[in-house]
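Researcher: We're reviewing a set of sequences before deciding which ones to prioritize for further study. For each one, I'd like a predicted 3D structure that I can look through quickly. This is NOE3 protein. If possible, include the structure in token form so it fits the rest of the review sheet.
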Amino acid sequence: MSPPLLKLGAVLSTMAMISNWMSQTLPSLVGLNTTRIITSDTLTQISPKEGWQVYSSAQDPDGRCICTVVAPEQNLCSRDAKSRQLRQLLEKVQNMSQSIEVLNLRTQRDFQYVLKMETQMKGLKVKFRQIEDDRKTLMTKHFQELKEKMDELLPLIPVLEQYKTDAKLITQFKEEIRNLSAVLTGIQEEIGAYDYEELHQRVVNLETRLRDCMKKLTCGKLMKITGPITVKISGTRFGAWMTDPLASEKNNRVWYMDSYTNNRIVREYKSIADFVSGAESRTYNLPFKWAGTNHVVYNGSLYFNKYQSNIIIKYSFDMGRVLAQRSLEYAGFHNVYPYTWGGFSDIDLMADEIGLWAVYATNQNAGNIVISQLNQDTLEVLKSWSTGYPKRSAGESFMICGTLYVTNSHLTGAKVYYSYSTKTSTYEYTDIPFHNQYFHISMLDYNARDRALYAWNNGHQVLFNVTLFHIIKTEDDT
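Model: Here's the predicted structure for NOE3 protein, in token form for your review sheet.
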């Protein structure tokens, strides 16, 4: 409640107290305890023998409090006790009337103040309502303006984000450039300590030492096969692709022979990149169809099994003609002793660090694998080793350093299961897994120069890396 309203409440409370005092205390002061006060404008009867009449009204038409006492005629002595009481009563009533008059003036003043305040409050209420309406209008207007500003700024957010990203990248670039500058400065200082001729001689010496070290590497034992790396997808389900292990480092020609029979077309590519892109450099039309997929390119010539025979053909790419052919005595052919996948894969020709080999089976060895080392010029058998591993149970095989490694299957789950060393004429069962990614291998050959396995895996030409265990020869070794 506001202060004017509190003041008004205090005034009304005081008036109520005075009215209550008049109705209860005034009769007792004059000894008229029999007084019966009724409501406004009513007569209060006093005992008849006393002759007193008291008129009491709560307020006049103007709202002022009124209290009137009518006394009987003054026929009594002034010294009479009643007269004293009356005089005292009149004095008290006069005092009370004066107080009431003062209170009334205050009440009227406060009432006028309250009316004024009420008018002001009503006016303020109207103003507040108007302000509130205006505020809504202004807020709506301001909100719309802010929204339009935000709409203008929204496209800047990704720009700012890009600035943040660019700033981060620039910081990284600065750091990398700083590091690179430090490295280059170190290299420059290091190079500055030597002249070009001295540096060149150091490189030559290092290369010589490295080559000497490589020459001391003995043939290693296969420890692990990783991959495959898919080079290309082409051809039928069966085929062969290869490079020459005796070619120079600059000669990276690739040869491609699709299918395992009824074909005599060999496609040549100058590099792996040309092979992948299909940029064929030359085509050879062989004089005979080949059997199987187990061909090999060695020292510039192609060695393959002539279709429906146990004859081995040597074909020179440079000369474009057959240089030699020879029957592989007792060797089975035309699906008599193939690998598990068939495809006339009876005779498998391969090469390693030692030379040229033929892997096949004979009736004399009960269908088990025979390993023969061949003369690369005449195709004459130099030496043979008879193993106890059935040829038809082998998935594929390859030679590394004079040791034959045989897989147990050509399908999923294949692993190198068996090996035979021609150096010691001994065998062992192994467990070297490799990932047959495309589920069907029809050609698997080792390339000594690349130290990798070339494979034809269900129409995919892939490479496997091999890990070999080497022994370094010392000067004391004989």
